[in-house]
Every structure is written in C-alpha cells, then in structure tokens.
Amino acid sequence: MNILDEIKLNKVLLSDGALGTILQSKGLKPGECPELWNITHRSEVKQIAESYLQAGSDIISTNSFGASRIKLSQYGLGESTSEINHAAAAICREAAGNDKHVAGSIGPTGKMLLMGDVTEEELFEAFSEQSIALEKGGADIIIVETMSAADEASLAVKAARASTSCTVIITMTFSKDMNGSYHTMMGVSPEEMVISMKEAGAHIIGSNCGNGIREMIDIVRNIRSVDKWIPVMIQANAGIPELIDGRTVFRESPEMMASCVPELIKSGVNIIGGCCGTTPSHIMEIGKAIGR
Ligand SMILES: [Zn+2]
Predict the structure, then answer these.
(1) What is the distance in A from the centroid of ligand 1 to the CA of 2?
(2) Cα dist. 184→2, 214, 227 in Å?
(3) Is the separation of the CB atoms in 14 and 56 below 8 Å?
(4) Rounded to whole angstroms, how far apart are CA atoms 121 and 112?
(5) Residue 158 and residue 106 in contact, taking contact as beta carbons nearer than 8 Å
(6) Are strands 271-274 and 13-14 parallel, antiparallel or unpaired?
(7) From ligand 1's centre to the CA of 128, what distance in Å?
(8) What pLDDT, in 10s, does the model give residues 249-264?
(9) Cβ of 117: how many Cβ atoms within 10 Å?
C-alpha cells in the first residue's frame, strides 16, 4: 500500500533508527566513505536493515545519505554515484520484501547556494541523479533529510518529484535559540519549512537529528500550527550529542525516548523513528509506545 494511504487509515507508522553511528560500531573508519559499504560490505549493511525490520520498522532507509555525486566526488567516487545508490536501495528492498517501505536517503551536499559554491542547476542535477538510482534500486520513498537551507531542500524535493514517482519526504534539523524558538542553522523556522516545502511538492514534512526527542514535541506543535493535515515525520537523535574522549555519545535510553511518544502522537505526528545514536532497541521501545 502507498504510505500516504496507510497514514490516512490513522495509523502511526514506525521508521528506523541510526545508520551512521551503527556503521561506525561495525568498523567504519573516520574518513572512510560510509556509502561505499553498499558495495564493499553489503552483508553488514543488510544486517542493519534486517535488525530494524525485526524491531518492527514499517520503513527502512538506505545507506545513501552522502551519496550525491557532489559528496562522492570528494572520495573520488563521483563516477560510481548511480551504482552506489542503486545498491543502497537494492539491499534494503531485498531485506524488506514488498510489504515494507524503502526510503532512499538524500542528505545535504555541503555546498551552499548562498556562498556561490554551486549553482541551482548543479544541485538539481545531482539530486535527480541520486533519486533516479534510488528508485531503480527499489525505493518507493525518497527522504531528503538533515536539511538546513530552504533553497537546497526545495531543489532536492523538486528533483525527487520530477524524476521519480516516489513519495517524497523532507525533514529539517532544528535547534532551540535563547528565546525558546526553533530554527535550522540557516535560519528556517518549522513554520517556514512547512510553507516552502509544500510549495516544492513534498508529500510528508518533519524534522530529524537535533537535540533529543522532547524538543520534537514543540517542533510538531509548530508545524501543526500552520498545517493540520500534512503528514508529519519525526526522527530524533538519542539526546544531545556529547563529545566525550573524542567520541560522540548519545544518552537517551530506549525507555526515555519511548516515554515521549504519547505526547508526540498527541501533537500530531504520523511517522516516528530515530536518528543519530538510536538503535534497534530504541525502535522496538518506540514501537511498543505506538501500540505494536
Ligand atoms: Zn542525526
């Protein structure tokens, strides 16, 4: 079933948790290209997908967050863009079968339009290329995530809509300022995100990463203050990232995250998962709180 139809049945769906932090725990070295693991460590990547499916995820996302041609070129892998994205989606589809959703992950390119690093055409072309390969590999959803600039996010959504028939999700990353209001690093508020991303053609809008699940309750309320109907997705980090002995540590337990789920649902969320620091145990507990 199309994910939008599932949401219309008033179901709260469960997505998956972190990939990057788990790849690191499986031996991904600093400075290594995580997305190349789709080719070189296929079974490890597939195991992660399977562990989330076992935890109850309705949606699993691909290991392709940094697999735009622009980012892969930094590793000398630009020419492998299609192959890497295709493999990322194929691994998840193989694990998920036809009953679960595969979301092709697209992250920021690291280039800023505002600084003249890149042109709109170059960004659109890069996001189109990535979206096409993800859909061909088996993704039924494209998720544009961890965005902070509205112009880049909007080009990614437009490219995914124009070049695939996938459902398109966009989630941006917010932090709270001293006045208690939320903005991305580039100054976009949740309310502004809703307006600009709907205009770009997003089917589902929300937030990921950030500073823990509690702040997501406010962010969902802000989104719902401007739109009562757009499906909303939240994938929170397991707390505020803390740097301890050169390692990033996330302290929210599965139980702590799950305890915020009822309030998050009351605020109007439709899909819940996790971001950095979350594990299959977090997803399983969140699933229980959803009522699985
Ligand atoms: Zn994150």
Answers:
(1) 26
(2) 30, 17, 19
(3) yes
(4) 13
(5) no
(6) parallel
(7) 23
(8) 899 999 999 999 999 9
(9) 13
- Ligand 1 centroid – CA 101 distance (Å): 20
Q: How far is the CA of 199 from the centre of ligand 1 (A)?
A: 25
pTM of the complete model: 0.97
Q: How far, in Å, from the CA of 57 to the mean position of ligand 1?
A: 17
Q: Which pLDDT value is given to residue 198?
A: 98
42: Cβ–Cβ under 8 A, 6 or more apart, which residues? 87, 91
Q: Give the whole-angstrom CA distance, residue 83 versus residue 43.
A: 17
Closest to 62 measured CA to CA, from 40, 37, 80, 79:
37
Distance 138 CA to ligand 1 centre (A): 24
pLDDT for the residue 289: 98
Question: DSSP letter at 73?
Answer: G
210 CA to centre of ligand 1 in angstroms: 6
* Angle, vertex CA 35, rays to CA 34 and CA 41, nearest 5: 80
CA of 275 to the centre of ligand 1 (A): 4
Cα of 209 from ligand 1 centre, angstroms = 3
Ranges under pLDDT 70 in the chain: none
Distance CA 111, CA 178 (A): 28
Distances, alpha carbon 18 to alpha carbons 124, 135, 188, in Å: 27, 21, 24
Distance 239 CA to ligand 1 centre (A): 10
